[in-house]
């Protein structure tokens, strides 16, 4: 049996070894803005220009989805109107007069990021796009966000529309706690059935989700003005984290988001490799 003094010294060394793993330096992020949160406590684990106002592209569809999910009655049908189709790709090319449940539309919104779907849901919820955008800004304020303003439900460029990494992290935490959205956001592939009976397989635009099992959401975004954006979430052994990366590039967005999630989840390189589920 080891003397108490030696035993205490060994225990202290072991504690230092564990602490050094937890205190590892965060990864360097080249994106314009970023933040990493503990999804359960809201504690900030990393930040870079997290309060800088900037366009966030389709990541703001998380807020659109949150408002629709919170309104409920997701099994009810919504009829597509002509005005809903007046937007640019990416879209599902829904036709006026077609009907879909709100749950179907939410799934297509979060998996494929369809802009026409966002317009259908916004009009259904608030009567028109501008009224829904006001609800988005108001809901953000209720979540504690103080630096955002929304003009449309899909994130397409619009004068006066902006948010921050920190504000979008607030939205992401609320969406992460919503069981319906949580289930949709982790969906890698979704078969969308048109009212005509035609079925189209949709692949989630989130490459981190499609590649690593520890990733379980959330939403991509891109415009020329916003750059490549990604809000991602991850879970491992009781830890849950959310990473918001805004203003990155096509070649770096997935890598930097993966490294942030891994840092928050305390994953080693070998653990990351072992949880790879695809070759992309």
Give a structural overview.
Helix 2 packs parallel to helix 6 and helix 3 packs antiparallel against helix 4. This protein starts with a helix and ends in a 6-residue tail after the last helix. The longest helix has 19 residues. Strand 1 and strand 2 form a beta hairpin. The chain has a single domain, classed as DD-peptidase/beta-lactamase superfamily (Beta-lactamase). It has a five-stranded antiparallel beta sheet with strand order 2-1-9-8-7, with helices on both faces. Strands 3-4 form a two-stranded antiparallel sheet. The protein has a two-stranded antiparallel ribbon with strand order 5-6. It is built from ten helices and nine strands. The protein is α+β, with helices and mostly antiparallel strands and 280 residues long.
Reported for the largest beta sheet, the result is:
5 strands, antiparallel
The CATH architecture would be: 3-Layer(aba) Sandwich
Q: How many strand segments? A: 9
**Uncertain ranges:** 1-23
Spell out the helices and strands N to C. HEEHEEHHHHHEEHEEEHH
Strand content: 15-25%
Q: Specify the overall morphology.
A: globular
Number of helices: 10
